[in-house]
Amino acid sequence: MSAVLKRNNVKVLGQGQQPMIFAHGYGCDQNMWRFITPAFEDRYKIILFDHVGHGQSDAAAFDQAKYASLDGYADDVLAICRELNLKDVIFVGHSVSAMIGILAANKEPERFDRLVLIGPSPRYINDGDYVGGFKQEDIEGLLDFLDSNHLGWSSTMAPVIMGNPDRPELGEELTNSFCRTDPDIAKHFARVTFLSDNRADLPSVKTRALILQCSQDAIAPEAVGRYMHQSLPGSEFVQLTATGHCPNLSAPEETIAAMEAFLSDPTPARAVA
Amino acid sequence: MDQGSLIETAEELYESAPCGYLSTLPDGTIIRANQTFLTWIGMDRQELVGHRCFQDILSIGAKIFYDTHLTPLLRMQGFVNEIAFDLACSDGRALPVLANLVQKRDANGRPMVHRITLFNATDRRKYERELLLARQKAERATQELKRLNETLEERVAQEVAERLKAEEALRQAQKMEAIGQLTGGIAHDFNNLLTIIVGNIELLQRRLPEGSDRLQRAATHAMEATRRAATLTQRLLAFSRRQPLDPKPIDVNKLVAGMSDLLRRTLGEVVVLETVLGGGLWRSQADPNQLENAILNLAVNARDAMSEGGKLTIETANARLDEAYVEALAEPVPPGQYVLVAVSDTGTGMDKATMERVFEPFFTTKEVGKGTGLGLSQVYGFVRQSNGHVRIYSELGEGTTIKIYLPRLIGSDEEPAEMPSKSPVMVRGMGETILVVEDEPDLRTYTTEALRDMGYRVLEAGDGRGALEIVEQHPEIDLLFTDVVLAGGMNGRALSDEVSRRRPGLPVLYTTGYTQNAIVHHGRLDPGMHLIGKPFTYAELASKVRRMLDGDQF
Question: Distance, in angstroms, between A76 CA and closest chain B CA?
Answer without folding.
Answer: 22
